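Q: How would the structure tokens look for this protein?
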Amino acid sequence: MLGRRIIKGANEKQVAQLFASVRLSQHEDGEPRDFDIMNNTGVADDLEDPEFEYMPTKRYSYSREHKLAAIDYFQTTWRENKDGTYERLSNRYASRRLRITRKMLHS
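A: Here is the predicted structure in token form.
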């Protein structure tokens, strides 16, 4: 499991907080649940529907480092299936977890 991170882990929390802090600094409301992410009450668990595509409510400006962090998150984060196997996150699922557009995850 070297080089991999698992969803709902400490590394995922750091990346989610990075994006939530940028959104909250640019707009006082940010995206829904950004305050929860910043207060360590967790990354949104209401996004389990595989057909749900998250669309940000506002337009945000992210630095190159933020975009690279999002791509790294997408490429190195895995989720555990019910049978104990692991699979990579889909582009759609990763963008929902970070509350960004799917286009940002294209490397």
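The chain has one domain: 5-105.

Residues 5-105 form one domain.

Upvote if useful.
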